[in-house]
Write a structure and sequence with these properties.
Blueprint (H helix, E strand, L loop, with lengths): L3 E2 L5 H10 L5 H11 L14 H10 E2 L4 E7 L6 E6 L5 E9 L2 E5 L3 E3 L14 E4 L2 H15 L3 E6 L9 H11 L12 E5 L3 H10 L4 E5 L5 H7 L8 H15 L3 E7 L7 H11 L4 E7 L13 H13 L3 E4 L13 H9 L13
Parallel strand pairs: 1-2, 6-9, 9-10, 10-11, 11-12, 12-13, 13-14
Antiparallel strand pairs: 3-4, 4-5, 5-6, 7-8
Helix pairs in contact: 1-2, 4-5, 6-8, 9-10
């Protein structure tokens, strides 16, 4: 009989499983606390559970824990990048960023990605599989456990398309924000999507208070096709209409992510078209100087082009920020560390405080 995966179960389901094992009801709370507050690495360390109960747990359930393969710490800004090995041997990466408002973790939601965005290292090997809710949680849990610092914010902007792993991602959100677990506020969670229209609408109907960030990256359907193959499936007008629907259902302002690629999407004409597209929406634009990758010819826009683009949007009342580059000396952009590991077949031994340069 195939074992059940217990760390992806919600509190009610754990209660039901414990009752089915013939254990007292309060044991469910103890077990859930070990899994989602104390970040136990196995059933064996749950020392206030009877030995017989632990034996039943080992026999009936798998217990998902991520192994730390590599931990890099930026000498520039203290950003930390992690490479984790999953139980099946696949590797994923996560990033810890420290801000004045608290610690934020950027997680992966899939092993690889099939969206194919031209400027992103995450997509170069395609998608291997979806992550389980426990494997998404495990990234946050291991980072909090290793640093001893509370994680208060989460962004799903690492490897993978969260809305391409919709059901697992939704369960992850439930567990992450559960009062019996980390109890992270929904308002402190951001999910980034390339624009899977039907799932943006599904997420809107959940009426959660998370922030939706659309990877826009172009001011026209034609240019978006050049940068993002997903645009061949979804028309830009339909994607933006889904974003308007999300705002209408949740009241949460939309974030548009726009990676500036030198000579490709950073012209005055691009800025003008972008104003026409989103100027009437309740939104925020996050301009991202693209991280060059050796497999592509794209280069980062120069500082004057970035400033001119920002100023054009602000002139028409659009709220804009330029994303601060973090962890560049440790391959901080999504997909870079994992790809380096897969290319070389091994991770270098890096001590805390060191960085790859």
């Amino acid at each position: 009989m195939e074992k059940k995966e217990i760390r992806s179960m919600n509190y009610r389901e754990v209660q039901q499983e414990v009752a089915a094992l013939g254990e007292k009801a309060f044991r469910a709370g103890q077990l859930y606390q070990w899994m989602h507050q104390k970040f136990a690495d196995s059933f064996d360390v749950m020392t206030n559970l009877p030995a017989g109960f632990r034996e039943k747990l080992r026999a009936e359930y798998t217990y998902t824990v991520l192994e730390v393969v590599q931990r890099l710490v930026s000498k520039i800004d203290g950003t930390e990048k992690y490479l984790f090995r999953l139980p099946d041997g696949n590797v994923i990466e996560s990033v810890l960023m420290r801000y004045h408002h608290g610690n934020s973790v950027c997680i992966s939601t899939q092993v690889g990605c099939r969206m194919g965005c031209r400027f992103c290292a995450s997509t170069l090997g395609g998608r291997t599989r979806d992550l389980l809710p426990s494997e998404m949680l495990g990234q946050v849990y291991q980072i909090q456990k290793l640093t001893g610092e509370r994680v208060s914010h989460l962004v799903a902007m690492g490897t993978g398309e969260p809305l391409d792993n919709y059901d697992n991602f939704l369960r992850f959100l439930e567990l992450l924000t559960d009062e019996h677990g980390l109890n992270i506020s929904q308002r402190n969670v951001t999910v980034s999507t390339c624009g899977i229209v039907e799932n943006i609408r599904r997420l809107a109907d959940e009426k959660l208070q998370i922030t939706l960030a659309l990877s826009l990256h172009a001011s026209s359907q034609e240019k978006r096709k050049e940068l993002m193959p997903v645009a061949y499936r979804y028309e830009l007008k339909d994607v933006l209409e889904a974003c308007r629907y999300y705002f209408a259902q949740t009241g949460r302002r939309i974030t548009f992510e726009y990676s500036l690629v030198g000579g490709v999407n950073d012209t005055k004409q691009d800025a003008k078209r972008l104003v026409e597209l989103i100027g009437a929406m309740n939104c925020h634009v996050n301009l991202i100087p693209v991280n060059p990758i050796k497999e592509r010819s794209y280069v980062q826009s120069n500082a004057s082009a970035i400033d001119a683009f920002k100023n054009k949007l602000e002139k028409y009342g659009i709220n804009v920020t330029i994303r601060r580059e973090m962890g560049r000396d440790i391959n901080g952009a999504c997909g870079q560390l994992r790809k380096s590991y897969l290319d070389t077949g091994a991770a270098e031994e890096i001590k805390e405080g060191d960085a790859v340069v």
